[in-house]
User: Which sequence fits this backbone?
């Protein structure tokens, strides 16, 4: 099963278990541009799976109103790049509804799915990673899965979480990542990072697509190709790097990351969004505070550049394995 | 206090043969005597409504003596409450923002009488009366404004954030509540509940893009939603004519029919609300409802309200078209109560509000721990959240 099928499977389970759950968004009734809602309208009826106009702000507001009445609203914003018209609704209404009504109302039943991150040729309006903009939205949760198993379990948890959740699906993984996904209804915990590779010399932290680039970089480190070999010192090739997938971006699992960095003394954070004001900056600040005396090197960020995602130069924009490898070497030899 | 039809130049320009709506508060006529015990009928002024792509409501409305007296008591109390808020703000006891609805009481009280608490009302930030009428108390409203524990949002919201189970809020972003209203209406339709949702906004918000997005969704999906434009003639400090290319707000729904109603005569408000409730609960889809009303005060407490309109204009509205004085005239002329009786009601209203002010003032401010409550659902919080300074980190 690949990731778009994992997402579809999760939506189907969510709708089966919960009569109030509805799925809506632009073109979702006939499957959505990435086929994540394929056949749901036939399975659950057009009253529960329906197309909306091209109305991002309206979709978010509509979903909040629906959720405020205790329903489960699963909205799709066709691309994360289009979430900005809905920013006001998400940050001012959804995130704050519970707090400002003293707990009387909330948009807890709302989950907004949106395909995000780069595919290599999306350009300015189809390759962005807007998770950082929501970091200040206390009351929201932001989740990014890395694979089909993760997507299904995290999406079910997001839909059932009593807080509004923005679920960003790395769109390049929809088809390229394939796993044996359990058919059952299961959830994976929100707010918890997952350690993929244990290590003791450096903590490598990422989420979504770049997790795979990190994995490639680790292979390059241990067994560099002939072309790379001169640049990878022999002494570093046996370094034990701990790879962590953050999974939930807000609220992020500072405990797990800090525990890891306390052991390794080094942290490299990799994300696709631009650097300034990005999630890496927040993680860096918190980790330097918590692990100041344990750090052997400054926290290193490998990110997109502070430019629009450039159409022709998307490959240079993205934090690719080479840049990650370089950051690892720099941090290990600091 | 005759019906001074206020002719607006734009109406003349766009609809030359249509008579403009009149907004006198006291132009309704008794049909046959007013009974003290039985319901009786009243004829509204023939220019109380106008319709767009639909017939306007009929002009007869049925009321009872008790209902009129209740309306009077509620309107008087609401005005007293808003005046108390005004005073508390000027004493610097209420901080932040505060938008008063003095002059617009016929809309809130009239809507309360035309709906039940199963119906849904969601509105903007000029909503103190709605929150109290729909299940709140004056103490909990003023407590919220003062930022005290007894407030309806436990003192955590303030003036723009007032809610009750029957009132879906109190929203501070201009126009943002309107798509939420579409969602509320969808939930009612999904649950097959025979109720109406009133999504309210002002003439200022009517130019927000998301209002039109909501119209489109509501008509597309035939949602039982009444979009209510409370047109008090000024969006903050800009008059409707200077902000809107079409000030006939009830006609701005394109294929959604609309009704314009006199928002100063509470009986016209009542009729319009009954009519639109019937409309949406009979499966006719959404409808627009514009109440032409007037706000006596400024937009908010920081606006004296006299830089963009003349004092004479405000004074004229107050003295000739006040909704409370209009209802008072009905009650007295129809022999339902004497001036002395109503004076007694005024006195009670003042006493009730004064008491609530004192009680609200005594309520303590929110506990420090409430800074971190209600952000995430209980039990699903992050491990910690930062407070005002580095040492003040709250662990859940």
Assistant:
């Amino acid at each position: 099963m690949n990731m778009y099928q994992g997402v579809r499977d999760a939506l189907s389970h969510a709708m089966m278990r919960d009569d109030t759950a509805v799925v809506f968004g632009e073109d979702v009734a006939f499957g959505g541009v990435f086929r994540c809602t394929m056949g749901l309208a036939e399975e659950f009826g057009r009253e529960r799976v329906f197309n909306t106009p091209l109305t991002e702000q309206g979709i978010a507001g509509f979903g909040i109103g629906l959720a405020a009445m205790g329903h489960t609203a699963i909205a799709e914003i066709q691309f994360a790049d289009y979430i900005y018209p809905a920013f006001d609704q998400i940050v001012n209404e959804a995130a704050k509804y519970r707090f400002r009504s003293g707990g009387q109302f909330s948009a807890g039943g709302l989950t907004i799915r949106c395909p995000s991150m780069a595919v290599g040729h999306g350009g300015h309006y189809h390759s962005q990673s807007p998770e950082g903009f929501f970091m200040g939205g206390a009351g929201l949760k932001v989740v990014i899965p890395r694979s089909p198993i993760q997507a299904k379990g995290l999406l079910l948890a997001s839909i059932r979480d009593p807080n509004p959740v923005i679920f960003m699906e790395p769109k390049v993984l929809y088809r390229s990542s394939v796993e044996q996904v359990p058919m059952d209804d299961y959830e994976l915990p929100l707010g918890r990072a997952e350690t993929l590779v244990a290590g003791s010399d450096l903590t490598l932290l990422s989420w979504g697509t770049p997790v795979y680039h990190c994995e490639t970089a680790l292979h390059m480190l241990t067994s560099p190709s002939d072309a790379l070999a001169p640049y990878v010192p022999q002494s570093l090739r046996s370094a034990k790097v701990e790879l962590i997938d953050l999974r939930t971006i807000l609220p992020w699992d500072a405990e797990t990351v800090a525990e890891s960095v306390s052991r390794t003394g080094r942290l490299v954070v990799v994300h696709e969004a631009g650097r300034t004001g990005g999630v890496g900056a927040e993680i860096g600040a918190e980790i330097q505070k918590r692990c100041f005396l344990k750090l052997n090197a400054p926290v290193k960020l490998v990110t997109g550049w502070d430019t629009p995602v450039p159409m022709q130069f998307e490959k240079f924009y993205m934090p690719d394995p080479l840049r990650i490898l370089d950051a690892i070497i720099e941090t290990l030899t600091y | 206090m005759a019906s001074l039809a206020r002719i607006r130049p734009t109406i003349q320009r766009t609809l030359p043969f249509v008579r403009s709506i009149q907004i006198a508060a006291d132009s309704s006529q008794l049909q046959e005597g007013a009974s003290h015990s039985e319901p009786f009928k009243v004829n509204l002024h023939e220019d109380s409504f106008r319709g767009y792509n639909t017939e306007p409501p009929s002009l007869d409305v049925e009321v009872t003596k008790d209902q009129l007296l209740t309306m009077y008591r509620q309107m008087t109390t609401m005005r007293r409450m808003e005046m108390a808020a005004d005073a508390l703000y000027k004493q610097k006891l209420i901080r932040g923002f505060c938008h008063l609805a003095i002059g617009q009481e016929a809309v809130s009280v009239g809507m309360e009488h035309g709906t039940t608490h199963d119906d849904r009302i969601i509105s903007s930030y000029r909503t103190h009366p709605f929150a109290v009428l729909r299940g709140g108390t004056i103490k909990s409203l003023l407590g919220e404004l003062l930022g005290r524990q007894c407030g309806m949002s436990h003192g955590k919201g303030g003036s723009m954030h007032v809610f009750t189970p029957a009132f879906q809020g109190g929203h501070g972003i201009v126009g943002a509540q309107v798509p939420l209203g579409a969602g509320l209406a969808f939930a009612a339709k999904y649950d097959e509940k025979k109720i109406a949702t009133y999504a309210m906004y002002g003439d200022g918000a009517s130019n927000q893009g998301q209002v039109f997005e909501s119209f489109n969704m509501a008509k597309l999906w035939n949602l039982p939603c009444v979009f209510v434009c409370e047109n008090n003639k000024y969006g903050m400090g800009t008059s409707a004519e200077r902000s809107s290319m079409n000030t006939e707000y009830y006609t701005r729904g394109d294929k959604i029919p609309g009704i314009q109603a006199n928002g100063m005569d509470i009986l016209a408000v009542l009729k319009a609300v009954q009519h639109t409730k019937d409309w949406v609960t009979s499966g006719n889809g959404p409808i627009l409802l514009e109440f032409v009303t007037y706000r006596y005060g400024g937009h908010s407490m920081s606006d004296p309200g006299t830089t963009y309109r003349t004092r004479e204009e405000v004074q004229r509205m107050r003295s000739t078209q006040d909704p409370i004085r209009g209802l008072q005239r009905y009650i007295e002329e129809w022999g339902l109560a004497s001036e002395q009786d109503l004076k007694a009601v005024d006195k009670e209203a003042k006493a009730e509000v004064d008491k609530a002010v004192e009680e609200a003032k005594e309520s303590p401010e929110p506990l420090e721990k409430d800074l971190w409550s209600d952000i995430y659902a209980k039990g699903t919080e992050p491990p910690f959240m930062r407070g005002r300074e580095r040492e003040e980190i709250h662990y859940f």
About this structure: The longest strand of chain A covers residues 267-274.
